[in-house]
């Protein structure tokens, strides 16, 4: 049995989709880089090896990417709550 939703439909804007997919991509890249560091450490790479080549970038992505993705998700939720609140007050 389905019930009718009394709340009005709120359209999804392009900015919402961009924020959602960008946050998802940054979080996924951060997790992949995090596991790459764990695997590199498990394979016996020493501390000096992580300081050269592409490893500083791989280490910076989880360091900066996860907080940025978290802030983007909080922004997306806030915008969604505000938009839904405005839509429900109009009807």
UniProtKB/TrEMBL annotation:
Domain of life where this protein originates: Bacteria
Record keywords: Membrane, Transmembrane, Transmembrane helix
TM annotation in the entry: 21-43, 63-82
Protein name, per record: Multidrug ABC transporter ATPase
Species whose genome carries this gene: Microbacterium maritypicum
């Amino acid at each position: 049995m389905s019930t009718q939703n009394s709340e009005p439909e709120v359209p999804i804007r392009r900015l919402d989709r961009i924020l959602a997919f960008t946050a998802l991509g940054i979080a996924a890249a951060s997790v992949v880089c995090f596991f790459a560091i764990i695997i590199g450490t498990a394979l016996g790479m020493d501390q000096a090896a992580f300081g050269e080549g592409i490893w500083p970038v791989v280490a910076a992505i989880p360091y900066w990417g996860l907080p940025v993705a978290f802030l983007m998700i909080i922004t997306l939720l806030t915008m969604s709550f505000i938009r839904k609140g405005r839509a429900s007050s109009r009807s």
